[in-house]
Q: What sequence folds into this?
């Protein structure tokens, strides 16, 4: 048994805003076998890091580099602006830490390749934080699909949208920080079809629109062609909403998940529609952030594979970049197929 299989996984968190303090930090602190040990903000926000660390008895470091260098930290959670994900993930891996990084891991496949190389060289675990995959309703949806009740999967319809204001300071509206709907809500909506079809699409096509006065994309409609007549229709937005639903259209019926990505403590509701009628299922509330932290910690301890694989992350980055390329050329189809060498 290695040391890591027995002792508490000590977490450090980069960034100290309300989302992190309200969701991930409590999830880490509440997960058996995990401890929230340190938080870091940029130097001018040290006071915020201290305030976020205090309720958990964690230490506030002077900056991100100091936290990553701390020998008392085993794992780092990264929820920085999208443009910083690859750099800080690689730096943490090179310092010997395991890393849970927010979506998108990278905004191109090359960034994922850099992460993969660093993880392999350091023999450390890295995973992109697609938290919704860890909610029990997700497992239930997969079970229903596998049971054959709705037949063979033909179409996935995924839609994730919420409206945000145009006030200054939101990283989602800032092009230099990787803002825009495609890299914010988009990754979830495009992950669901890839999860259920178990592969990358062969080709995608997208149309983006931008709120007047903004240069980032704020709404998008896209199609994803999985071959053999199988497809996904996806829309996502930071202009309208709220909506966070997907539907699996099979040859014999439809499975709808009412709230896939915006869960905050409520029950999950699944609806199955077939020729036999309508059937509703309720899945009891669960904290998908905590389930995600627990699954990541298990992968670290067991040295096993993560539920969200690096192949998943490469696909997500490739497809996100392809949607942007398609939108930039008025919806031209862009090839996104897995290479024959892509492992599962
Ligand atoms: N899984 C989910 O449910 C979920 C939900 C929301 C966001 N996210 C992801 O988490 C990441 C951060 O999103 P957020 O909503 O938490 O953003 P946010 O509230 O603006 O926080 C951004 C964080 O990045 C740090 N930062 C570093 N450089 C920055 C800069 N130039 N401008 C602003 N902040 C900077 C800030 O940390 P300090 O100021 O403390 O240094 C802050 O903690 C994104 O990748 C997003 O996709 C995931």
A:
């Amino acid at each position: 048994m290695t040391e890591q299989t027995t002792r508490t996984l000590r977490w450090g968190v980069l960034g100290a805003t309300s989302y992190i303090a309200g969701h991930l930090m409590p999830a880490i602190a509440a997960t058996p076998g995990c401890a929230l040990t340190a938080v870091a903000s940029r130097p001018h926000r040290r006071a915020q890091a201290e305030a976020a660390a205090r309720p958990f008895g964690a230490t506030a470091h002077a900056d991100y580099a100091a936290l990553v260098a701390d020998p008392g930290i085993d794992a780092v959670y990264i929820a920085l602006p999208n443009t910083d994900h690859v750099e800080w993930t690689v730096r943490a891996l090179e310092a010997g830490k395991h890393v849970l990084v927010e979506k998108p891991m990278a905004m191109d496949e090359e960034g994922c390749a850099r992460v993969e190389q660093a993880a392999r060289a350091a023999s450390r675990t890295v995973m992109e934080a697609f938290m919704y995959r860890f909610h029990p309703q997700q497992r239930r949806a997969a079970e229903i699909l596998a049971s054959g009740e709705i037949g063979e999967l033909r179409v996935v319809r995924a839609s994730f949208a919420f409206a945000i204001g145009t006030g200054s300071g939101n990283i989602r509206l800032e092009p230099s920080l990787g803002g825009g709907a495609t890299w914010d809500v988009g990754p979830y909506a495009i992950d669901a079809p890839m999860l259920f079809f178990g592969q990358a699409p062969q080709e995608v096509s997208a149309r983006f629109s931008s709120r007047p006065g903004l240069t980032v994309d704020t709404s998008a409609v896209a199609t994803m062609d999985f071959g053999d007549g199988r497809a996904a229709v996806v829309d996502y937005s930071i202009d309208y909403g709220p909506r966070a639903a997907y539907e699996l259209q099979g040859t014999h019926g439809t499975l709808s998940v009412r709230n896939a990505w915006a869960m905050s403590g409520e029950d999950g509701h699944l609806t199955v529609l077939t020729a036999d009628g309508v059937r509703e299922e309720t899945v009891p509330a669960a904290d998908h952030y905590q389930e995600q932290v627990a699954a990541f910690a298990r992968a670290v301890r067991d040295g096993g594979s993560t539920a969200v694989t690096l192949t998943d992350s490469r696909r997500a980055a490739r497809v996100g970049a392809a949607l942007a390329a398609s939108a930039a050329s008025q919806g031209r189809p862009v090839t996104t197929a897995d290479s024959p060498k892509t492992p599962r």
Summary: The longest strand covers residues 153-161. The pocket of NAP is lined by residues 15-17, 19-20, 41-42, 45, 48, 79-82, 102-103, 129, 131, 171, 177, 184 (CB under 6 Å). The CA atoms of residues 187 and 316 lie 7 Å apart. Residues 310-328 form the longest helix (19 residues).
